[in-house]
Design a protein that fits this description.
CATH architecture of one domain: Orthogonal Bundle
Bound molecules: zinc ion
Helix content: 40-55%
Distance between the termini: 77 Å
Shape: globular
Radius of gyration: 32 Å
Structural class: alpha+beta
CATH class of one domain: Mainly Alpha
Oligomer: single chain
Number of strands: 26
CATH topology of one domain: Isoleucyl-tRNA Synthetase, Domain 1
Length: 640
């Protein structure tokens, strides 16, 4: 019995992030299931969105000098635009700064507070600002944040807490009793491992004095809501009030899809929050893996962040959608390489599928003037082909339950290969030579085209654009969404008499020479930067604020061979600057000299002393010579 409503979500993406291949991956994966379910005639709700509160957003907005709201209004567009380009069929896009979301967050907080599921207490802990998380002493990794390894601050304050701890045993039982709840199984064991330690209550507030950019607690205006408590509610806030959610038929969600890094927050925080609210946890939380690029972790400093827009421009949207889900089993980590992508494009898409369509439509044109013939005979080869088709359809349906995308595609390619072999074995080019053969040819050409029609429907969730083009070439005008999976339950849905179109390459091959060129361009972004990066524009240079300054005091830094600590008057203020010039200058020779200071350098600590600028000097084989002037220019004068 097929359920008639289906709800799938991606995580909401952190609005400050630049959308990369990882975001695209989760969203495409969710999109494929959503599209498939719609083809099965199920009413689907597919949600994605952006996470827009928190300290880092506030900070980023401050840095560019706009309000946090203006900042997120602009930034969330990058996700929306990418989803349009990637043909993502989401039904809604939730932003946590929208009133519909904030309202439900407030209602839930109020309700849990009134039921004493939320209480006030004093709290002392180690706080990591970038992660916006408190850690206990035992969580720390050598005194630093266990998640990002940055330094943490000890903070004592009053806060509000959600009684998460009391749901620990309920959650453990739930996870153990429902093998489908957390997938893949290896990740489920990680969560159970986490739950072996006592589960503490969750601090769900942040004092407004420290963080203003959040949803104010409805029962205490001095606090805003902890971002995770706010963000997780997105999965239900699009459905309205708690009563609306229960009535919608879309809760519990069928799949909350998440990256493995946020599995614990979903499996533990979110499930217990829902329990307290009186809602069921999602039927399934699926944690997928991460992508490396050419064997390396994606990072801005390595300049290897794979930008989806660029990939779409280069290879086409369906190739990207296909590659990401074909290459790696969903749930495992994968490695992205352009070489592997080109390999899949050329072999699977251009040679196998593309060529099958091409030769079928060409032969249809050549032997039947593009009119689909009525099949006449039914031999063992035909039977084998139709049976294969039925087997593939049945297995694909089962594999969707496990989100086993790569297996689904492998299975579908069995039908691609079988159909190619069917054409090779029956040999239409020989059949066309005799009258008897021509009768047989009708069946062979019909079956080849019919098999392609089945493939068009099966592949539509993965490659929505190309499969519509495939159908048109076969002479089928109705959109695949209208035909649905039911149109392939029976062999023979292609109408004899349909007029095929002129063959068109679905996936042009990338020839070796062109591939080599693409790979060279892509693999050397760093060198490229270096070659052209020698030169800077005048604007870039003018960012460096150089000023004259008079040295007022100078003394050697104890225990340092090189450093001298200077007090420098730069006109508007006196700066403390450290300079590595001790081997070339005595402190007493420096006092009274005018030097050039980089005045807008970010302060840095050297040997525990803060340096608020840099002194310009030439260095010649370790001999340091301070830059100076042939006339006295005065203090605080700009240098260009
Ligand atoms: Zn951290």
């Amino acid at each position: 019995m097929q359920q008639n409503k289906f709800y799938i979500t991606t995580p909401i993406y952190y609005v400050n992030d630049v959308p990369h291949i990882g975001h695209a991956y989760t969203t495409i994966a969710a999109d494929v299931v959503a599209r498939y379910k719609r083809l099965e005639g199920v009413e689907v709700f597919f949600l994605t969105g952006t996470d827009e509160h928190g300290q880092k957003v506030q900070q980023a907005a401050n840095d560019v000098g706009v309000s946090p709201q203006e900042h997120v209004d602009k930034l969330h567009q990058r996700f929306k635009e990418l989803w349009v380009r990637l043909n993502i069929s989401n039904n809604d896009f939730i932003r946590t700064t929208e009133e519909r979301h904030k309202k439900l967050v407030r209602d839930i907080l109020q309700e849990l507070h009134s039921r004493d599921e939320i209480y006030r207490d004093s709290y002392e802990g180690w706080y990591c600002t970038p992660c916006e998380r408190f850690w206990t002493e035992k969580d720390l990794a050598e005194g630093n944040c266990p998640e990002c390894q940055r330094k943490v601050d000890k903070i004592k304050e009053h806060n509000y807490f959600f009684r998460m701890g009391k749901y620990q045993q309920w959650l453990i039982d739930r996870i153990k009793n429902d093998p489908h709840f957390i997938l893949p199984a290896s990740r489920k064991n990680e969560v159970l491992g986490f739950l072996e330690k006592p589960l503490e209550d969750l601090c769900i507030s942040r004092p407004k004095s420290r963080l203003a950019w959040g949803i104010p607690l409805p029962f205490d205006g001095d606090y805003v809501t902890y971002v995770w408590f706010d963000a997780l509610i997105n999965y239900i806030s699009i459905h309205g009030s708690l009563d609306d959610i229960k009535a919608s038929g879309f809760w519990p969600a069928d799949h909350n899809m998440v990256g493995k890094d946020i599995l614990t927050t979903h499996a533990v925080y979110w499930s217990t929050m829902l329990k307290a609210i009186g809602l069921e946890p999602p039927k399934n939380i699926f944690a997928h893996g991460w992508w490396t690029v050419n064997g390396q972790k994606m990072s801005k400093s390595l300049q290897n962040v794979v930008e989806p827009n660029q990939l779409i421009d280069q290879f086409g949207v369906d190739v990207i959608r296909y590659f990401l889900l074909r290459e790696v089993p969903f749930g495992q980590d994968g490695d992205f390489s352009h070489k592997a992508l080109i390999g899949r494009l050329n072999s699977d898409l251009a040679n196998n599928l593309g060529n099958l369509l091409n030769r079928t439509v060409n032969m249809m044109e050549k032997y039947f003037a593009g009119v689909v013939p009525t099949p006449a005979t039914n031999g063992p080869e035909d039977k084998a082909l139709t049976e294969k088709s039925g087997e593939v359809i049945a297995e694909v349906r089962i594999l969707y339950n496990e989100l086993a995308y790569n297996k689904i595609l492998q299975k579908i390619w069995e039908l691609v290969d079988t159909t190619n072999q069917y054409i090779d074995k029956t040999g239409p080019w020989n059949l066309a030579k005799t009258d008897e053969g021509k009768e047989r040819l009708k069946t062979v050409m019909y079956n080849s085209a019919e098999s392609l029609r089945v493939l068009g429907v099966l592949l539509n969730p993965f490659m929505p654009q190309s499969t519509e083009s495939l159908m048109k070439q076969l002479g089928i005008e109705a959109p695949i969404a209208e035909q649905g999976m039911k149109s392939i339950n029976q062999w023979g849905g292609l109408k004899p008499g349909s007029q095929t179109q002129k063959a068109k390459q679905l996936f042009p091959r990338i020839e070796d020479k062109q591939a080599a060129q693409i790979l060279t361009e892509l693999s050397s972004p760093k060198e490229e930067k270096k070659d052209n990066g020698n030169q800077i524009t005048i604007d870039e240079f003018m960012k460096v604020e150089l000023r004259t300054g008079k040295i007022l005091e100078a003394e050697k830094v104890k225990k340092s061979k090189k450093l001298i600590q200077l007090k420098v008057d730069i006109g508007t203020e006196t700066r403390q600057v450290l300079a590595g010039i001790s081997e070339s200058y005595e402190p007493e020779d420096l006092v009274g000299r005018t030097v050039i200071i980089v005045a807008n350098l970010k302060p840095a600590k050297l040997m525990g002393i803060e340096s608020q600028g840099m002194v310009l000097a030439a260095s010649n084989d370790g001999n340091i010579i301070l830059a100076g002037f042939d006339q006295e220019p005065g203090q605080g004068v700009q240098v260009r």
